[in-house]
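hey so i finally got around to running the thing on that chain from the lab meeting. sorry it took forever, my laptop kept dying and i had to restart like 3 times. anyway pasting the input first so we r on the same page abt which one it is
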Amino acid sequence: MDEREQIQQQMLELIYGLLSDQQSAELVDRISSDGQLAREYAELKEQTELLAEVTQANTQPPNYDDWKRQADDDRPTPSTPAAMWASRTLQVVAALAACLLIAAFGYPMLSIDQQDQTLAFAQQKEHLAKNFLSVSVTGPSLMAAEVRNDFFVSIEDADSQPVDAEVEYTFKNPEGATVYYGLTTATNGQVVCQIPADEVSYAAKLEVVARHEQAKSTLDIDVKAAPPKPIAVLQTDREIAEPGEMVNFRAVVLDPQTNRDQSANVDFVYRLPNQRGLNHIASAERATLQGVAQGQMQVPTANDFDNVELGIQSPQLQNNYQQRALPIADASAKDPAGLARLSTRQYGAYQDNTFGAYGGGAPSQIAARPEGGNLVAGVSNRLRYLATRDQASGNRARMQVRGAEAKQVAETDKPDQDYGYFDFVPQPMQDYTVEVVEENQAPLEEQIAQAQSLPAAMQINNGVAPANQPLEVEVRVAQANSTLALVASDGHNTIGHNLWDVGVNAPITQPVQLNLPAEASGAQRVQLFSVPQQDDAGDSVAEPQLIAERIIYRIPVQRYDIDVEGLPAQADPGQSLNVQVSVTDEFDSPAQATLGVQMERVTDLLPRSQQPLGLEGEWFFNRRVQVPATAAALPENIRDLEQDSVWFDQVLALSTWKEESVGPTSDTSEMTARVPEEADTASAATQAKLPVMRRSNKKIVQSEYQTALAAVHADWESQLEDIRQTSSWMLTVAGGILVVCLIGLAVVQGLPKIGVWGPGLLVALGAVLWGIFSLNLALPEMNAPSASQTEMVALNDAIEKRETPLAKASQDLPKERQADGAVIPMADDNAAASSFAAGSMSANAPQIRPAVELQRNGQPSQKAQVELRSGPARFAQPTAGGMREPSNDAPGGSPLSAPANASNAEMRGAGMESFGATPRLMRSQPEPSPQAEAPADNDANDPQADAVEIESAESVMGRSGDPQSETETLRSEPVLWQPRLTTNPDGQVNIPVQLPRQPGRYRLLIDAHGSGRLGTVVRYVEVRLPSLAAPVPAAPKKAAN
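ok and heres what got predicted. didnt touch it at all, straight out
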């Protein structure tokens, strides 16, 4: 559009009044100032006026009266046909059918059934349970000092489901300062919190904090450490002394956990059998140096006593004192035969540090015992046995097991061995018999054990193993829904534990591993307890029950090896020797150690050693283990016994634990032998309380959870009630609307009127459906928080702490006497009163008892066997603890284990002498040949003379019939005594030895200790008459360790 057309357009707009005032004013001013525009505007305005006049219409308005007249025309209306009513009826039926169809399809989708409600509520409950964590801690009631201690932590939510939470634990001292801190993550709700050995003695409280997402739980428990109290081992320079002789002795004080030498102030005392008081040895050292205190005393010259009781006492020792009996024999006042009998009795009796002669009859020919001490009905049991070989016939006893009515129930797979075991499942209340029988002869002996209904039995798979390997135990559960505790200890402190619930399945075998600290070596005690749950009806807690116990042996991994050079197998009388001793550790590196050297003359009239010699044998084995009466003589070196692990494990399974009693603390106190009644009392006192505790905050967490859950349930129920009330009103209104709409549907005519009733009908139908499914809402019933079945194992010490007088009294005991008496409260500290003295297992309460003991008469048959039979119960019922007391109702009955006043060595020596048994050879030792048993002078130059037992020259002289020479061979004569000898930094030392001129067999015993390691070596040298000595001495060789 050009400018001219645009101006014309604006002028038209001006004419019709379409421009704004400002635009109109501007255009008027322009038209006025321009004549040409003025003429054009005038023409354009004239044209528009003419056009308006032409377009104006000239029509008439409509006549409404005419239209009304036509509408009011009075003509007849036609009648409604019947088809119209049928159509309306069908419309009503179709509407009702549509309503029902919509209700049928919509109700299942809109309604909420009970299952959906339960599932929805369970999901909300599970989500709520994850916000509440409970912490349970299981650990030793009294931590063992100087070794690692483990605490087992279990994390669960409020539904008792394990939670993999982050666990933060802190050990604090009494002042609240942190001793040790750890951070770990639980796996399947389980985690182990460890405190190193260096920090144990400082810890007084354990704080455990568990975190998972937004949840957090805290548990604080008090912990205690057993004071590291050392133990003394007494050694003398001779095995038997004469009145008036000067006897040298020493005491080695060691830590029971780490085997390190300890410093202590000690007092050496002695007592004669005819005296009541203790006599102090003033000349002896009063303090240890390098862990050793030494002294000497002169034996009184009176001849009215058979032994001197030598002891060491100190409040710094574990049991205040240690004692040892030294047999006294006056060779000039007694006949040789009497001295030999005395030595045979006393040597064995005093090896065990007990007193009194063995006064019973012949010992059992067989020792048998279920592993753990009890036969448990309903599960597989292992019955172990040791049989003494009959030297007269040369046959080992053949073993088999017989059940009820002489029915065979099991048979050993080692019939030619003198030891073995039977695996079988005993029946309740049946007595199973082990008897030694011969072909066509009456039984010689039977031993009976009764099958009992106990919660479980145990079987240890590696009873003899290195100390750094875990202990593997099979627990055979006979009763479901029970709580078991497996505890390993050294007699004073807990070194390993596991406390668990067995579940609902039984019988079942559950493998359990105990990761014991490597420092805990030597003989250890393993016990299985049945721990009852808390009684909800009262505050009292039932007593724990000891159901199984046996001894294991942990081979030390840190020890000294001692090499001896310069000691020939044979030597001339009075010969001077330069013995070179080298000490190395387990890495074959030279080690500086403290040595104890003893050399003495031995004799064939004294019985062979019945237990390992030296510091290693005494420390790791002798002081803890009471071996069975039928065990063959143990090797002199404990390491030879460790190598034959199968037989060693058999001996341990049949052995019992030596209980240590508290000794006298004043000069007027009497050092007396432990009689059986005192042994039972000490055992009951020692085992009065379970050395494992369990603490938990589960009860308080469950209480908080139940409170929160009840609040959620109440809120949800309130909301549903509001919905149900609203739905009832809506249902009533909807019904009314539906009725009105249906009536209107029937009244109105035709489908075009659907706009009248359609919306109301839909609203009414929706209201009806809403009312139907909302009235169906409901929630399951909930138990009140007080009625919940949650179990509280323990609380924090600061929460609901209750003390009984007995619990308070146990806390007031000296800390050093609570090493074995720590409490395991299962619900609160009220459980401190629990004890099971009646169920303690002592050496005088065996499960297998000899019923018949008959001596062998006549020539034994060529076939012998051992049988196990069962029959109806005919003995006393088991005690509360599950262990039966010995019964003497059978003819000749006596306990299988040794009397408390007689040692295992004595009875073993007497028993083997009665049955003609020979000492058992280790697997590493060859069987002796007949040539080795011949007199040595038949072949003096035999190069094998060093490896066999050579008959000594004193035995040859003893056959000459000279009484004086026979009495001289009885006594052992000390030659060398170095109680505290230190090696150089290279681990070496030279020991000059001047052999005596008296012929005989001499034993060199060297002990080494230091840096937590022990070592022992035993060597022999034969001092022979010049006519019997070999022309060329044997080459020196290293000692076998």
